[in-house]
Amino acid sequence: MLSIKNLHAGIEDKDILKGINLEVKAGEVHAIMGPNGSGKSTLSAVIAGNENYEVTEGSVELNGEDLADLAPEERAHKGVFLSFQYPVEIPGVSVTNFMKTAINESRKAKGQEEMPANEMLKLIREKSELLEIDRKFLSRSLNEGFSGGEKKRNEIFQMAMLEPKLAILDETDSGLDIDALRIVANGVNKLKSENNAIIVITHYQRLLDYIVPDFVHVLYNGRIVKSGGKELAYELEEKGYDWIKAEN
Ligand code: ADP
Ligand code: MG
Ligand code: MG
């Protein structure tokens, strides 16, 4: 699904990613952990095609296709989904209407017709039931006055609707209460399948009490310095990141 080879990237004159190698197969959930400032958000931004970052070496491939020349929207249409760290507020546009537009834009970009209204309603009903999202929430203005948990619910709903091949959830280091963690975790657990892959980026081990990753990677100073199974997350919880810093 995703194959990253010797990826170097940075911003202006600053090198941030210094040779990342990562293979993610369909059906897998990978967790990327690491201390603040390691490059976790940069990695997700570079995979999604954020043009503020410059790739200086290496490659990112999705199902064998090099993504280098593709804009963020094109990557999204190929099935890359990045949760929004800073969601925009759109007063007067409901969660549902925003989603309808996003789905139809995506179909248009692929040369498909708009989704028929009844099919759209069915999809919205199906996904919102799966994630236990109530109708009242669907009619609220996008992100306006949303709590941290509601923003997460909206992100997970978007992920469910768009059915990405590769979903990257970059959990900001702050402000995620236990409710929000549960929402993200339930969503991931319900949406994972043999046909998609999920990368969960998190500073804290807590989230991994609810999502069991197949692989855990530690990113430090722009490199993956350790990879393992879920037990690595427990080791990090117990020992913190200092031993990682000392070894590297
Ligand atoms: P993490 O998500 O692991 O906390 P980031 O990817 O946000 O790490 O940041 C990695 C490093 O790159 C940090 O030193 C950060 O200050 C720097 N960095 C990230 N984005 C930018 C940017 N837009 N401009 C300048 N420096 C940046
Ligand atoms: Mg950070
Ligand atoms: Mg970050």
Automatic annotation (TrEMBL):
Keywords: ATP-binding, Nucleotide-binding. It comes from the Bacteria. PROSITE patterns: ABC_TRANSPORTER_2. Signal peptide: none annotated. Residues 2-246 form the ABC transporter domain. SMART domains: AAA. InterPro entries: AAA+_ATPase, ABC_transporter-like_ATP-bd, FeS-cluster_ATPase_SufC, P-loop_NTPase. CDD domains: ABC_FeS_Assembly (cd03217). SUPFAM superfamilies: P-loop containing nucleoside triphosphate hydrolases. One of its GO terms (molecular function) is ATP binding. Belongs to the ABC transporter superfamily. Ycf16 family. This is Fe-S cluster assembly ATP-binding protein.
